[in-house]
Amino acid sequence: MVADGVILHDLIAIADAFEMADRLLATEFSGISGYKVSLLSIDGKIVISSTSIQIMTLPLPDAAVHFDTLIIVSGKGNLDISHNFRLMNWLRMIRPSVRRIGAMSCGVLVIGSAGFLDNLHATAPRFLEEKLLEEFPQIHIRDDAIVEDGNIYTTSDYGMGAVLTQRLLQSDLGAHLANRVLASLIQAQTKMTEACVPINEKIVKIEQNRNPMSAAIDFMRDNISSSAVLSDAADFVCMSERNFQRKFKISTGKTLYQFLTDLRLEIAQKILREKNSTPQEAARSVGLSEQRLETLFKKNLGISVSEYCLTISMTAAQKYPSDLAFPIQKTTNCLDL
User: Fold this and answer.
1) Which among 61-70, 111-120, 278-287 has the top mean pLDDT?
2) What Cα–Cα distance (Å) separates residue 301 from each residue in 67, 266, 282, 323, 332?
3) pLDDT grade for 192, boundaries at 50, 70 and 90
4) How many beta carbons lie within 10 A of that of residue 197, not counting itself?
5) Residue 290, burial from CB neighbour count under 10 angstroms (0-12, 13-18, 19+)
6) How far apart are the two ends of the chain, measured CA to CA in Å?
7) pTM score > 0.90 for this model?
8) Is 6 exposed, middle or buried (0-12, 13-18, 19+ CB in 10 A)?
9) Residues with Cβ < 8 Å from 162, sequence gap 6 or more?
10) If you average pLDDT over every residue of the chain, what do you get?
11) Are strands 100-104 and 121-122 parallel, antiparallel or unpaired?
12) What confidence category does residue 317 fall into, taking pLDDT thresholds of 50, 70 and 90?
């Protein structure tokens, strides 16, 4: 079950894990295929992920269609659909026929609104705990990465698609086969991203990054080329832009505009130093026009982009270190982006 702003990483991890489980079952038990994944949204429309990827979905089916497992995937859209009358009625209607339900990050709001968590233990992102306790005081919030209570599974953060699916597969296939699925999934992801990390280390890493401001900073750094990176970062941690700006200033001591200006200048300098890029390429890489980057260089560094590049060239020619950088000067005009 998805809505706009879905975290694509979680969606892919869940689908890949069930697909690998099918392959393993077919290998171990000839002719058996155990899982089929359907992607649903309220109206069956195209859903936009947090990274602006378009995803085709199916509409909510009628009560005659039965699901073994229903997972509400993490994403900003859960904040809106948690108040959708049609969705709440559909969830309550199909619940008796669903064996188990999972909710990731902001998805906890959805099943909380449907009444699925009444008098149960659950976990949620820290920045949502106060809202959950205020709206649903009968829910018992626990400070764990993943909580299983009866047939309800909740996770405390985004990025835990593989962790949740491994728990579900373990109850179906046993620990041995479930761990083999997870190992295969991690190995496949490793080829495209990073070295294989055991499941317990992944959970520790997730726990260390539960602070939404840290997650937002990582998101902005990874998506610095987007001109809408600020609003996207707020969506990524399931906050309104106004609340996000306020909490960011409290947490970091900088306004979002100050931070993003510093970050863009830092990355632009690095690109110009290390990748031998043109000013136009550097500007595009940090989500700015060439003229706007030029303005920021002059205001914050005191030199133009071309002067900066010339200094780098002269330094390299003289065999000086190539990591020359100018300190960012403080400015009181933080809104000029």
Assistant:
1) 111-120
2) 59, 11, 16, 16, 14
3) very low
4) 14
5) middle
6) 37
7) no
8) buried
9) 13, 14, 17, 182, 185, 186, 199, 202
10) 80
11) unpaired
12) low
Q: Which H or E run includes 155? A: strand 152-155
> Looking at residues 238-242, what average pLDDT do you find?
75
What is the structure's pLDDT at 33? 63
User: 256-274 and 305-317 are packed helices; what angle lies between their axes, rounded to 10 degrees?
Assistant: 40
The pLDDT value recorded for residue 202 is 40
Helix axes 290-301, 256-274, angle to 10 degrees: 100
Mean pLDDT confidence for 309-313: 77
Of residues 162, 203, 154, the one with CA closest to residue 182: 162
Single out the residue of 243, 164, 252 nearest to residue 206, CA to CA: 164
Secondary structure, 3-state, 94-142:
HHHHCCEEEEECCHHHHHHHCCCCCCCEECCCHHHHHHHHHHCCCCEEC
Which residue type sits at 28? E
Largest CA distance in the chain: 76
Cα distances (angstroms) measured from residue 194 to each of 50, 157, 158, 172: 21, 20, 18, 29
pLDDT in the model for residue 329: 47
Closest by Cα among 331, 333, 328 to 263: 328
Q: What is the pLDDT of residues 55-97, one digit of tens each?
A: 899 999 887 778 899 999 988 888 888 889 999 999 999 999 9
Sign of the Cα pseudo-torsion (292, 298, 300, 305, in order): positive
Residues in CB range of 336: below 8 A, 6 or more apart: 257, 299
